[in-house]
UniProtKB/TrEMBL annotation, chain A:
The lineage of its organism: Eukaryota, Metazoa, Chordata, Craniata, Vertebrata. It is a multi-pass membrane protein. It is found in: Mitochondrion outer membrane. Keywords: Membrane, Mitochondrion, Mitochondrion outer membrane, Transmembrane, Transmembrane beta strand. Pfam families: Omp85. Residues 45-125 form the POTRA domain. Residues 1-20 are annotated as: Disordered. It comes from the Eukaryota. It comes from Coilia grayii. Gene3D superfamilies: membrane protein fhac (3.10.20.310), membrane protein fhac: a member of the omp85/tpsb transporter family (2.40.160.50). GO terms for cellular component: mitochondrial outer membrane. Belongs to the SAM50/omp85 family. This is POTRA domain-containing protein.
From TrEMBL, chain B:
The lineage of its organism: Eukaryota, Metazoa, Chordata, Craniata, Vertebrata. Keywords: Membrane, Mitochondrion, Mitochondrion outer membrane, Protein transport, Transport. It is found in: Mitochondrion outer membrane. This is Metaxin. PANTHER family: METAXIN RELATED, METAXIN-3. One of its GO terms (cellular component) is mitochondrial outer membrane. The keyword Transport applies. Belongs to the metaxin family. Residues 277-308 are annotated as: Disordered. Residues 173-234 form the Metaxin glutathione S-transferase domain. InterPro entries: Glutathione-S-Trfase_C_sf, Metaxin1/3, Metaxin_GST, Mito_Protein_Transport_Metaxin, Sam37/metaxin_N. Residues 23-141 form the Mitochondrial outer membrane transport complex Sam37/metaxin N-terminal domain.
From TrEMBL, chain C:
Keywords: Acetylation, Membrane, Mitochondrion, Mitochondrion outer membrane, Protein transport, Transport. It comes from the Eukaryota. Involved in transport of proteins into the mitochondrion. It comes from Coilia grayii (Gray's grenadier anchovy). GO terms for biological process: protein transport. This is Metaxin-2.
């Protein structure tokens, strides 16, 4: 028996590193696999050795967990499948540039007749990788310098540093990532950052310098994140014409918060899913561990998708959130919720719903928003199977409300307040998927239920976002 | 004086004895007080980058900063403010503060930060007056010092840009020039017919602005509309800084002072002339007559300086 | 996308398009309206101005200065109503405010009382950051925000309230010169003593300045402020001064003020001006404030006419403890 190049025979799609390719386009291959299995499944084999070649700074014990399963293979198909799985697991660690699998009959004195040796030939990523970008916006430019140290200590630790030097401000971020050996999903991250954000809809400028630690772990079907964040926030007016309500919020504050996020995501794609559901619940408690800001914040996101007629997809989503200030101090403008814009309640200006003062939106302490979408492929399906598959047309109906609550009134009054003056809109447009992280939308919207003070965007609205209703 | 005082300063140009306004203050004061100061330009030496100008050397002492140099000169009995009353002394301080706060930022801006002036006038001048490798650094260093001073003293908040500050400092400076013009009125100098330290300061600040061939000079244009200030500059230049001074110059107008009045003035000065009070040595000792009045009988001087 | 405080706080946040050009647009509008105003008849002016006043919101003070001065002569007779809810903002008077800020705040309060313009004093921990110029105090009148005494004087003059109307040009020059003397010497000396004298900075200024903030932000902000002030001191040539020299400067400045005041009631005889408010604000605060030692107050107390001048203004304008501003002012003094 000669050397089997696992890669060439591998019946499964291999897209470990090309996350951009979507799973849902690969469905037709399964029957083919089944026929091969019949032929080969009876050959009993024993995996005697598993070697990893090409290791430099990576510690072997760290990889042991990832490849251990290969030893349990009982027949050739099993070996191939498990080798493939192990390869995927290795690639997922983000420390190898390339992993090839070689399956060969065992050689040497202790070789069994049906013994196999599996060899993983790995190429490690460089010790240090750098990137350089320039970004030009209107009236400003910035230079982004990134440095990444994959596998810094030999057990999958990753150190990344990003520095952006702009004409208006500089920001930086330093993060250290450490996975638990054998359980890549259980990991720990430490971040150190400074970011500056400008929020023209509130005439607000915010500079944050902070430290955060994050613990991620899977539990049954869900992903959990526990996080502590200590952040020094500096708020200022973006322009001298900022309203006095925003001016009053200016200054420094310290927020120390504990937060927990639970997410269950069964969708087949994050951006244009065909089926599956997403439930994300986030709660944040600030002030308990020190700092000036004290509040409890709850935020829920639910999205359901199911295939509909003629390749179209029906999608429904619901968001809701509430911020409860603790200790009698009013909430800070930077903590409150904002609603509106091309990726939430369409047809309204960016974050331009709800309480405002002299045209500066102040955000609200409670909100909800819901959306109903019908996604269809492009009419006549131009560019089918290629570029055209990145596009969808959609028809949508959005609704939502954002307001402040008076906590003396009780829950019934709150619900009533949120049910009054609902903003809603409907329309249609085109969605473009950008990789697997963001999407662009060009919509024609008709806003309804507009309240005084809201900024609307009647007609064509363009937007990009990573989170969308 | 056996050894003449030596002032390290930037050299002259544009019909001025020095192009540097702080040096000009000291030079003018020296002339007003009758001190023999030999200006020693630092041009084309390595001191262009190391020295703090103006710098006065006298018998082993080194004095920096115009204010301190003026005090030092007073201590050396070169006092141009001798005849001022206490209130006039107070006014001198106040107006000097006005110049510092309101005119100086705009002056620095006009010469060092305004791109057109800096590129066409200031940088070429200072570069051509510095020795070879330094000519690349001297102007830039001065310019960044000037900019940081303006930003630190006049920028309202850390986020202010220079363009936002410009409007403010120029309107302040124009107002300041107007006020000086009002204050001067039709008199020859700020306190009558004799120049004093205030005149030295005003001259030091406005003469470069008046004389320099600036390509972008909103402040200069404003100054040129104020005839009495321009006239003041011309008079000082003509009377004190011309090579062959006209006869009777400096024009010390020696009106016959009533002996009693003189004595009274002296008494008041001794009590309260705050400029003299700047150094403790003087407080306990009798006031020195300025050298400028040396021609007066020595007997009268000794009598005056020890009041009964 | 609705929280801005989201789990994965990425650098991408910086990419939000900025738009702080609005202020210029507003000032341009204002400038272009001026010729129109000037061509109106005088009787219409007040009406037109009140309409355009809306445009003045937070327009840069300097621009406002230029514009306001242009229209000043027309407005001098028509005094605009002063809104009831005019508010003066300053740092927390009990535990936070520092000598220099307190002096500036008192000067503005005194000036407004001299003009007979009522103002409510509001103490905010973030007053410094609320102020458009980063300096306290500032006043919020209608929808306009003006900070520091100089611009506030300009502002009230534009509204038809002025104390220096009766002065001639030379007197006005003199007044301005003495005001700059106070800023140049007294204010700088106060800042120097607060932040550059290590004992005062450690025992008084840093703890007070940072009192509203929690650890570790309090230390960060206090040192940041100290560093900022020291840089400024170096820029104006005060960095190399010794404490003794600074006290000597204060003495000199007070002597100049004392000489100028002489035996007059106010600096310009019978009528108080903004100079009187400024001098009172600083002198009164210095003599009523307890620092680590009494050196500063003692230097000032040598000038008896300045002391009686302060007493006189205190009695005339703060005699009746009727408003909140008076009570806050009295409580602040000895605590620093």
């Amino acid at each position: 028996m000669g050397t089997v190049h696992a890669r060439s025979l591998d019946p499964l799609p291999m897209h470990g590193r090309d996350l951009g390719v979507n799973h849902d386009d690969m469905e037709g291959m399964e029957p083919e696999q089944a026929t091969k299995q019949e032929i080969l499944e009876n050959r009993n084999v024993v995996v005697q050795h598993v070697n990893i070649e090409g290791l430099g700074r990576t510690k072997e014990d760290y990889l042991g967990y990832e490849i251990a399963d290969v030893f349990n293979a009982k027949n050739l198909i099993d070996v191939m499948k498990k080798s493939h799985d192990a390869r995927m697991r290795l690639l997922r660690l983000g420390i190898f540039k390339e992993v090839e699998v070689l399956i060969d009959v065992s050689e040497g004195s202790d070789a069994l007749p049906n013994g196999l040796d599996v060899t993983f030939e790995v190429t490690e990523l460089k010790r240090l990788t750098g990137s350089y970008n320039t970004m030009v916006g209107n009236n400003e430019g910035s230079m982004v310098l990134g440095v990444k140290l994959p596998n810094a200590l030999g057990r999958g630790e990753k150190v990344t540093f990003q520095f952006s030097y702009g004409t208006k401000e500089t920001s930086y971020g330093l993060s250290f990532f450490k996975p638990q050996p054998g359980h890549f999903e259980r990991n720990f991250t430490l971040n150190l950052y400074k970011v500056t954000g400008q929020f023209p809809w509130s005439s607000l400028k915010e500079t944050d310098r902070g430290v955060s630690t994050e613990l991620n772990f899977p539990l049954w079907m869900s992903m959990h994140t526990l996080k502590w964040e200590g952040v020094w926030r500096e708020l200022g007016c973006l322009a001298r014409s900022a309203s006095f309500a925003v001016r009053e919020e200016s200054g420094h504050s310290l927020k120390s918060s504990l937060s927990h996020t639970m997410a269950i995501d069964t969708r087949n794609s994050a951006i244009l899913p065909r089926r599956g559901a997403l439930l994300r619940i986030n709660q944040e408690l600030a002030g308990y561990t020190g700092g000036d800001a004290s509040f409890l914040k709850e935020d829920v996101e639910l999205q359901l998708n199911r295939p509909f007629l003629f390749g179209s997809v029906l999608s429904a989503s619901l968001w809701g959130g509430m911020l409860v200030p603790i200790g009698g101090k009013p909430s800070c403008i930077a903590d409150r919720f904002y609603l509106g814009g091309p990726t939430s309640v369409r047809g309204f200006g960016m974050y331009s719903i709800g309480p405002q003062s002299e045209g500066d939106y102040l955000g609200g302490e409670a909100y909800w928003a819901g959306g109903l979408h019908l996604y269809t492929p492009l009419p006549f399906r131009p560019g089918r199977g290629g570029f055209g598959d990145l596009f969808r047309t959609h028809f949508f109906l959005n609704a939502g409300n954002l307001c402040n609550l008076n906590y003396g009134e009780g829950p019934r009054a709150h619900l009533q307040k949120l049910a009054e003056c609902i903003r809603w809109s409907y329309g249609a447009g085109i969605v473009l998927r950008l990789g697997n992280i963001a999407r662009l939308e060009l919509n024609y919207c008709i806003p309804m239920g507009v309240q005084s003070g809201d900024r609307i965007c009647d007609g064509v609205q363009f937007g990009a976002g990573i989170r969308f209703l | 004086m056996a050894t003449p005082m030596e002032l390290r300063c930037w050299g002259g140009d544009w019909d001025l004895p020095s192009v540097h306004f702080e040096s000009l203050i000291v030079l003018a004061y020296g002339k007003f007080a009758g001190a023999k100061i030999s200006a020693k330009p630092i041009d084309w030496t390595w001191r262009t980058i190391t020295a703090t100008v103006p710098e006065l050397h006298f018998e082993g002492c080194t004095v920096l900063e115009p204010m301190k140099i003026l005090n030092f000169l007073r201590k050396q009995r070169f006092n141009a403010d001798y005849e001022l009353t206490a209130k006039q002394g107070a006014d001198t301080m106040a107006y000097i503060a006005l110049l510092e706060e309101n005119l100086r930022p705009a002056m620095l801006h006009t010469f060092w930060v305004d791109a057109e002036n800096y590129a066409n006038l200031t940088r070429p001048w200072f570069a051509s007056h510095s020795p070879f490798p330094l000519n690349f650094f001297v102007p830039g260093r001065q310019a960044s010092l000037a900019l940081s001073r303006i930003m630190l003293t006049k920028a309202e908040s850390p986020y202010c840009t220079i363009t936002e500050v410009e409007g403010k400092i120029y309107s302040e400076a124009k107002e300041c020039l107007n006020l000086l013009s009002h204050r001067l009125g039709t008199s020859q100098y700020f306190f009558g017919n004799t120049p004093t330290s205030l005149d030295a300061f005003v001259f030091g600040y406005i003469a470069p602005l008046y004389k320099a061939p600036l390509s972008s000079g909103q402040l200069q244009q404003h100054l040129k509309q104020l005839n009495n200030l321009c006239n003041f500059c011309d008079v000082v230049l003509k009377s004190f800084f011309t090579e062959n001074p006209p006869v009777e110059s400096p024009p010390v107008i020696q009106e016959p002072v009533d002996a009693n009045l003189q004595k009274l003035t002296q008494l008041v000065n001794k009590e309260s002339n705050l400029i003299e009070k700047m150094d403790d040595n003087l407080r306990s000792s009798p006031q020195h007559r300025p050298h400028r009045s040396d021609h007066r009988p020595a007997a009268q001087r000794s009598k005056n300086s020890t009041p009964a | 996308m609705m929280h801005r405080v989201e789990g994965n706080r990425s650098l991408g946040k910086a990419a939000v398009a900025p738009s702080n050009t609005a202020v210029y647009e507003k000032s341009v509008v204002l400038n272009s309206t001026l010729p129109a105003i000037q061509s109106c008849k005088c009787s219409d002016v007040a009406h037109v101005m009140s309409r355009y006043m809306v445009l003045y919101i937070n327009v840069r003070v300097s621009l406002a200065n230029v514009c306001l001065r242009k229209s000043l002569h027309m407005l001098s007779t028509a005094a605009e109503p002063w809104p009831e809810n005019a508010t003066l903002y300053q740092p927390l008077s009990e535990e936070q405010i520092l000598l220099s800020d307190n002096a500036s705040s008192l000067a503005v309060q005194t000036y407004l009382r001299m003009c007979n313009l009522p103002v409510r004093v509001s103490c905010r921990a973030n007053a410094e950051f609320m102020s458009p110029s980063g300096k306290v105090p500032f006043i919020h009148v209608g929808n306009q925000v003006v900070s520091e005494l100089g611009p506030i004087v300009q502002f009230t003059r534009a509204k038809g309230h002025s104390l220096s109307e009766g002065l001639d040009d030379v007197q006005r020059a003199e007044m301005k010169a003495y005001m700059e003397l106070v800023n140049n010497m007294l204010l700088t000396a106060e800042l120097y003593i607060q932040w550059c004298d290590d004992t005062t900075a450690t025992e008084v200024s840093r703890p007070r300045y940072s009192s509203p903030y929690s650890w570790p932000l309090n230390h960060i902000l206090a040192y940041q402020k100290q560093w900022e002030v020291r840089r400024k001191m170096n820029a104006v040539g005060w960095g190399g001064k010794s404490l003794e020299q600074v006290y000597e400067d204060v003495s000199q400045c007070c002597q100049a003020l004392s000489q100028r005041l002489g035996t007059q009631l106010y600096f310009f005889n019978k009528q108080p001006t903004e100079l009187d408010a400024l001098v009172y604000g600083h002198i009164f605060t210095i003599i009523t404030t307890q620092l680590t030692n009494n050196e500063l107050a003692e230097r000032v107390q040598n000038f008896s006419n300045l002391l009686s001048f302060c007493k006189r203004i205190d009695q005339t304008y703060f005699g009746k403890p009727d408003e909140s501003s008076a009570s806050s002012r009295h409580s602040k003094g000895p605590s620093l």
